[in-house]
């Protein structure tokens, strides 16, 4: 006869761990709770429908979506190179790709300005040869958001590629498929959850970008003023509008985390 194991009571959390944990939760949750408590709920509708808030919302959604699309076009192939190719210097390349994750966004904005500004390395040629000026335009917003957000996508897709079963790709190659066909027909479907998770993270990071945007694109309503920049400006002129915009960003952040947790992130891990 087999023995039946009785599950004993799980031990409680030690007090030396419980107290700091409670303090940490309070430290993280209380500011968010204060934002909700102090929100001008009676003025929420008029604030959301005001022209300034509407412009910032539209520009933020459009620029974050464009930055995510650009990150997908450039980042997925880059993630494949990091995960699948045997080229030398991959570790250096991976380190360079992840630099924007730890680089202060303002420094990223300065770096973009030195490259794409009117006197920059590439910007000077664009200005003289094509009469194209990038800084302080909506295009600059998309570029700044792509710079800081694309590494999130690359890391997510690279992890999904490394976790994917390479035998399916080997089988496709055995059947005569070239590497491009294998990538389109086999690899992409395998890592689709990882791509989706990375795209959502990328979009959320782009939506909340502030430092690189204000440095490289400026803060012009209707052209470069995204929601984080509008929050910063409104906090000095109209605190209620700043709270409303902050609530919108909070809702988007929570929705993003729930979406990743309940749908794509769990699938990517599996």
TrEMBL record:
It is a multi-pass membrane protein. It comes from the Bacteria. Keywords: Cell membrane, Membrane, Molybdenum, Transmembrane, Transmembrane helix, Transport. Residues 57-260 form the ABC transmembrane type-1 domain. Its main location: membrane. It holds the Pfam family BPD_transp_1. InterPro entries: MetI-like (IPR000515), MetI-like_sf (IPR035906), ModB_ABC (IPR011867), NifC_ABC_porter (IPR006469). GO terms for cellular component: plasma membrane. It is found in: Cell membrane. GO terms for molecular function: molybdate ion transmembrane transporter activity. The chain crosses the membrane at residues 12-37, 57-83, 95-116, 136-157, 186-206, 241-260. NCBIfam families: Mo_ABC_porter, modB_ABC. Belongs to the binding-protein-dependent transport system permease family. CysTW subfamily. Part of the binding-protein-dependent transport system for molybdenum; probably responsible for the translocation of the substrate across the membrane. This is Molybdenum transport system permease. It comes from Geodermatophilus siccatus.
């Amino acid at each position: 006869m087999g023995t039946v194991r009785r599950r004993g009571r799980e031990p409680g959390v030690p007090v030396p761990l419980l107290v700091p944990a409670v303090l940490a939760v309070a430290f993280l949750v209380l500011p968010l709770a204060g934002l909700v408590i102090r929100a001008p709920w009676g003025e929420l509708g008029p604030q959301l429908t005001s022209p300034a808030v509407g412009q910032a919302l539209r520009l933020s959604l459009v620029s974050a979506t464009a930055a995510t699309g650009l990150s997908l076009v450039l980042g997925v192939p880059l993630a494949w190179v990091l995960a699948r190719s045997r080229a030398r210097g991959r570790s250096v390349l991976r380190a360079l790709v992840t630099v924007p994750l730890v680089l202060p966004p303002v420094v990223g904005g300065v770096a973009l300005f030195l490259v794409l500004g009117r006197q920059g390395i590439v910007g000077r040629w664009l200005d003289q040869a094509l009469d194209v000026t990038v800084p302080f335009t909506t295009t600059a917003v998309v570029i700044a958001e792509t710079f800081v957000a694309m590494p999130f996508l690359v890391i997510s897709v690279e992890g999904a590629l490394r976790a994917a079963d390479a035998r399916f790709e080997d089988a496709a190659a055995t059947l005569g498929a070239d590497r491009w066909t294998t990538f389109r027909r086999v690899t992409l479907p395998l890592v689709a959850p990882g791509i989706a998770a990375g795209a959502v993270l990328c979009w959320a990071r782009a939506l909340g970008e502030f430092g690189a945007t204000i440095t490289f694109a400026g803060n012009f309503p209707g052209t470069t003023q995204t929601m984080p920049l509008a929050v910063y400006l409104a906090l000095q002129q109209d605190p209620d509008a700043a709270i409303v915009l902050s609530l919108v960003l909070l809702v988007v952040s929570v929705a993003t985390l729930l979406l990743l947790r309940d749908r794509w992130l769990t699938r990517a891990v599996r």
